[in-house]
Amino acid sequence: MDYTVNNKEAWEEAFNKHKEGWGDDINSRLANENLPFIEEVLAEELTRYDFKAKAIAQFCCNNGRELMGLMKLGASSGTGFDIAENMIAFANKKAGELELNCNFIATDIRDIKESYNNSFDYIFITIGALAWFRDLKVFFEKVAACLKPQGLLFIHEMHPVTGMFGVYGEENFDESMPEKVVNSYFKEEPWIENNGMGYMCGKDYESKTFYSYSHTLSDILNGIIQNGMNITKLKEFDYDISESFQELSNKGIPLSFLLVSQKK
Predict the structure, then answer these.
(1) Which of 70, 102, 157, 218 is 20 to 30 A from 38, comparing alpha carbons?
(2) Positive or negative, the Cα torsion across 165, 191, 38, 153?
(3) Are 185 and 164 in contact (CB under 8 A)?
(4) What's 64's domain CATH number?
(5) Per-residue pLDDT band at 24 (split at 50, 70, 90)
(6) CB 133 within 8 A of CB 213
(7) Could you tell me if 164 and 134 are in contact, meaning their C-beta atoms sit under 8 angstroms apart?
């Protein structure tokens, strides 16, 4: 079974069902905010780097809004990759309207063409991306290939520990004890769901089946290291960036992390 076929169909279905007005704020936020759509911790980190004349890319870029926001840092070009064709079509249309030098490509990340090898100074991965890949070593192999020598990878993601807890609406979630551990940190079998992409649609719905995977922190670190990249920064935080674990925020539980890595 190629799980990415199912995930592609589920993501495209979710975009077609997105709630009214979702994505309509891109123009106004780009005009009025310094780094719209970028979480504060990542935005603060990025201000430490020079973006002038830099080529940047985002893997799993969704509708492109984060990458378009990152262009405000002065990058010369932006390239976004995502498996959902309708999201990519939206992103290209929006970038054209805004006259941004961004290009969005519909592809499985693992199938990004070799013509993009050694192309990018910076690559970004934000919340929710890593869970869609069963094998992170293969994923980071593509990241390393696309980065220029000395290029940087930025990851701002949910902490792997979050996979141990239940989420509201799941059978094993205990509303009176949200910190209860209900899943193994080392879970290998996929999460199999068909209740929709709620954050985009604003509600659950019976959707096409999609698959996601848990990864340990060592899975992430080893996937990076084994592909010729050095980890230059790792910071962990006890606050939720997913809106799924708000009850656990600021209670000493690792819920999110920021990682910076450099290609050798």
Answers:
(1) 218
(2) positive
(3) yes
(4) 3.40.50.150
(5) confident
(6) yes
(7) no
What the block records as the tokens of 105 is 């490509």
Question: What does pLDDT average to over the chain?
Answer: 94
Secondary structure of residue 176 in the 3-state scheme:
coil
d(CA 8, CA 106): 10
Give the Cα separation of 45 and 62 in Å (integer).
22
Write the pLDDT tens digit of every residue in 201-210: 667 788 899 9
Distance of CA 1 to the CA centre of its chain: 23
Strands across the sheet containing 229-237 = 102-106, 77-82, 55-59, 120-125, 147-158, 256-263, 229-237
Distance CA 5, CA 96 (A): 28
> Nearest CA to 128 among 70, 215, 248?
215
Integer Cα distance of 31 and 142 in angstroms: 33
In whole angstroms, what is the distance from residue 135 CA to residue 106 CA?
20
- Global pTM? 0.95
Domain hosting residue 153, numbered range: 3-263
Q: How many helices (H) and strands (E) does the chain have?
A: 8, 9
Q: Total domain count for the chain?
A: 1
Mean pLDDT, residues 102-113 taken together: 98
Residue linked to tokens 């941004």: 100
